[in-house]
Design brief:
304 residues; alpha/beta; 40% helix; binds ligand FO1
């Protein structure tokens, strides 16, 4: 069994690659919920949906989120009404949010709804929200406090961040399924997702960090920073804004005490010895999942 701590796109690609080299039933994704929001009365879970859609082969590759073959008629109407249309929900995607919101209003948990959606899409990989409790990633910025999607989408993550607050994480508990999957996995993987805003909100949920500390030798992490830059998104800028070194070494130090083996990109081969001096193993390989071959090579490194 392999358990993968997962954010959005990077994690989804790694999960897809892993499922080509390990039976999907052997894989569990423990997914961030700090990006989740309620908008237009609907509960939207972007990381859960990106993973579910990608594994089902339905992700919109052009946008990197939402469903393929999308249309936007509802958003266009909403815009004309003056409603909240800055966070774009496609017509097909809306069905997921309507379904989830209805089920939650009937008393189902986020975990139950996620399982139902995975069954609907015929997924063999188990996809688990890290918690069924409320967790919300928020940012202190030059513009004041912003919730996740205000920062990420409305302001295009182009605003200086002075602090990140994972509201509710201190009181939230990981679900029993999540803890079981972490305790029983032969390997725990930290996906190449944003350390500060995708993985940290998972680690801060009650019960998770403790298991990783105990199981450190079985934890393998893939650096999302390659040659001092993030492939996508604001990870490099956030590391800099918050005083971390913007390199794979900075990420290694951020996860101090939690990881036994690091996978870094060939572009960072010269940093391998510095990382080894932190008392961890290092594998150097291609970490950019630009094509199926590279993704498979990375998946093999993760399970090797
Ligand atoms: N990202 C955008 O840049 N603009 C959007 O309008 C947008 C809508 C959206 C709707 C549903 C969903 O599941 C994801 C959506 N995303 C959108 C992506 C999302 O904001 C982020 O990529 C993740 O939260 C970061 O992992």
């Amino acid at each position: 069994m392999i358990t993968v701590l997962s954010g959005g796109v990077g994690a989804a690609r790694l999960l897809r690659a892993l499922s080509d080299v390990v039976h999907p039933r052997e894989i569990t994704a423990v997914v961030n919920v700090g990006d989740d929001l309620v908008l237009n009365g609907l509960t939207i879970c972007p990381d859960l949906d990106t993973i579910t859609y990608t594994l089902a082969g339905l992700n919109n590759d052009e946008l990197g989120w939402g469903l393929s073959g999308e249309s936007w008629r509802v958003m266009d109407e909403l815009e004309q009404l003056g409603g909240a249309s800055w966070f774009r929900l496609g017509d097909r995607d809306l069905a997921t949010h309507l379904y989830r919101s209805q089920r939650l209003s009937e008393g189902a948990t986020k975990s139950q709804v996620t399982a139902e959606l995975c069954t609907h899409h015929g997924l063999a990989i188990r996809v688990l929200p890290v918690t069924d409790d409320e967790v919300a990633t928020q940012f202190d910025t030059d513009l004041g406090r912003l919730n996740f999607q205000e920062y990420f989408v409305r302001h295009h993550h182009d605003v200086k961040v002075t602090a990140i607050d994972i509201v509710g994480a201190g009181e939230a508990r990981a679900t029993d399924e999540v803890i079981d999957s972490l305790v029983s996995a032969s390997r725990i993987v930290i996906a190449p997702s944003n350390p500060l805003i995708s993985i940290d909100p998972i680690l801060r949920v009650g019960g998770v960090r403790e298991v990783l500390e105990r199981r450190r030798d079985d934890v393998v992490a893939v650096s999302p920073i390659i040659d001092g830059r993030a492939l996508k998104g604001p990870a490099d800028r956030l590391l800099a804004d918050l005083g971390h070194e913007v390199s794979c070494v900075g990420v290694v130090d951020f996860y101090k005490g939690l990881v036994g083996t690091w996978i870094i990109d060939e572009a960072d081969a010269s940093r391998a010895d510095v990382i080894r001096s932190r008392g961890v193993k290092v594998i150097v390989t291609t970490t950019i999942m630009a094509d199926a071959q590279n993704a498979e090579r990375l998946a093999h490194a993760v399970i090797s």
